[in-house]
Structure formats: structure tokens, C-alpha cells
Fold this protein.
Amino acid sequence: MTLTLEKSPLTEAAYYILLSLYEPMHGYGIMQNVKVMSSGRVNLGPGTLYGAISSLLEKGWIISAGESDSRKKEYQITEFGKKAVDCEIHRLEELLANGKKITGAKQ
């Protein structure tokens, strides 16, 4: 595990996975939660989900939180992962504010 806080943007999948893991959750639960949060717009397939989970585990942004009673592995966000989410929210707010300022879009 390597604790890193990159300056590059999070992928949409990684962002939604991190948000989902503020409560311990297994893979299928994450897929369902992301679908609900995005009003059905984002559907994570198993390959995308577990590839992202592997990367997030390596960065130290999530940890394995054990297994639920059905033997499904659960994951949970770490404090470092929460910092990554905070950085991404700040980045997205800046993008939105600049876009509205330049285009004159309604606040």
C-alpha cells in the first residue's frame, strides 16, 4: 500500500466508490449505491468496480473492512481517502464556478 494524494482528478467511478464507502459496503452494494446516487446514469460493471477498488486499496484510500455474514468482502474509506474526496469536491467547485463566470450561466 502506498499512501498518495495525487493532484490529478478522480475518475467518476473512483469518486462514486469513495462516496459509497463512507459506510462499509461490499462490491454489489457499491454498484447499486452508485446507480442510485447517479439516478441511474452511472452503472459500474464488475471489471470497472474491482479495478478501481484495487487501485484505491493500493493508494491507501480504502481498506478491506472484513467480510459480511454472506462472506462478501466489505470495504471502507480511510481518512486519507476522505481527504482525496475533499480535494476532488474543491476541484469540481472551482471548475463549476469558472464555467459559470465565463459563460454567464445562472448560479
Remarks:
- The beta strands are 25-26, 62-67, 73-77.
- The mean pLDDT is 91.
- The longest strand covers residues 62-67.
- Residues 12-103 form a domain with the Arc Repressor Mutant, subunit A fold (CATH 1.10.10.10).
